[in-house]
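Pasting two entries for a bug report.
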Amino acid sequence: MIDIKLIREKKALVKKGLKSRGVDPKIIDDFLELDDQWRELTTKLDRFRSEQKQLGKERKITKAKAIKKKIQAHQAKLMGLVDLRKDLLNRIPNLPLSSTLKGKGERDNKVLREVGKKPNFKFDAKDYLSIAEDLDMIDMKRGAKVAGSRFGYLKNDAVLLELSLINYAFDLLTPKGFIPVLPPAMIKPHVFEGMGRLAADQKDERYYLPNDDLYLIGSAEHTIGPMHRDEILEEDQLPIRYVGFSPSFRREAGSYGKDTKGILRVHQFDKVEMFSFCKPEDSEKEHQFLLSLQEKIMKGLKLPYRVVEICAGDLGWTDAQQFDIETWLPAQGVYKETHSASNTTDFQARGTNVRFKRKKGQELEYVHMLNATGLAMGRTIVALIENNQTKAGEIKIPAVLKKGRC
């Protein structure tokens, strides 16, 4: 969540940040109006409670009962204000950094660099699904029969390929100080909300289990981020870096008709995710570090890709700055997003109450939290199949994924 103190003290700055994201800044005026009412009512309640306590000491029972009725009436009003105020706060996204690219939407995103050589096939390239079905690696028909549309089976070499990709990512990242973790695939609603992942239209993306009051996660980020919820870290512990592997579940609401045939856009997929907790002054440098590791992973796989800087108007809800990596798919003749790297600054840290204490100074500060895709399995397998296909309909596997690699 956004810093309420910042809204109160720097209203114009917050409004400017929201406007750059395409969010109506009037929400700030609406919030502050409710906030003023909440503060006034809270002050009144504190005064009434103090009076009630004093009247109790003085044995003035009749007056104490009258004050009690006032307290009950004001508490009911306060609860209504608390809910309205919280609802408005949850509709305010993170503010862009001053260094974030300006722009209104996807068309204003900027390609920073293209890396790698696109394959120049001497034959008509096939799409990944045709190749995978011929090699009995992907079975969408049986997936749909068992679980419905946008579910599929990975089989045979596709399974071995995914396991190799997981090992490759972990082998590359753990020497860089990343702690390996297999996080829960379910999360409590109030924790999910604290991560900013139930705000706005994101709730439509989530699978909810009402009998258990739990959500299925959409990424390992969602349950790695709250690991240190309500904890106070020491300055010399930071940065703390994790690499997690988990299944991911997304409804893909609003994406009907887009990539519906294969495994590019499905309801369940596996993912390796990087996550970092760091000091505020280090987060932009940490963001570039995570991006450099994503590129190192891609270079090892020898996949052609481009790095895209995301403009303010196209940022994810929790993000203050974001970079994507898009990988070339030759049969389709397009780049498709395979990675995202996001600096959420203190937005998620406030929602999960993750703070740290400096060696010098008593005041606690919120950490900055960052997340970055290590490898999204389905999309990476798609890219590997299309870029490494042969005329005979086989697939050449990169050296880093073969057994006995260094």
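Entry 2 (this is the one that rendered wrong in the viewer):
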Amino acid sequence: MLLAAATTTRSDFEAGTGWTLRPEGACLGEVCLPLPASALDGDHVDVRVIAEHTGMPLLHDEQHGIWALGPWPGSGRTLVSADAPELRLPDLDGNEFSLSSLRGQKVLILAWAPY
């Protein structure tokens, strides 16, 4: 879930994550994780508190003012590591390009297939 701030509305949080915020905590299907009272203030959700108590990864890019909340580790949809495998592919000129040449930089990999 991408956010412009570390707080959001209850409805946006629930729509973006699939979690339901109930009195007993954050619930996803049969799983409910208790949350402290500081996680909710009326309709406002403090994503930092929820990330801390659920184990969801939360990243902040200060330069662009973006927050990113990742999936709950118990969902089975998380990566084991953030290390990408070494990729070596030809560039548009036919020269070999290595993904590791971009180490330390933010990289977006877009894959497309016609089938």
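Dev reply: Rendering is fixed now. As a check, the viewer should reflect this: The longest helix spans residues 10-17.
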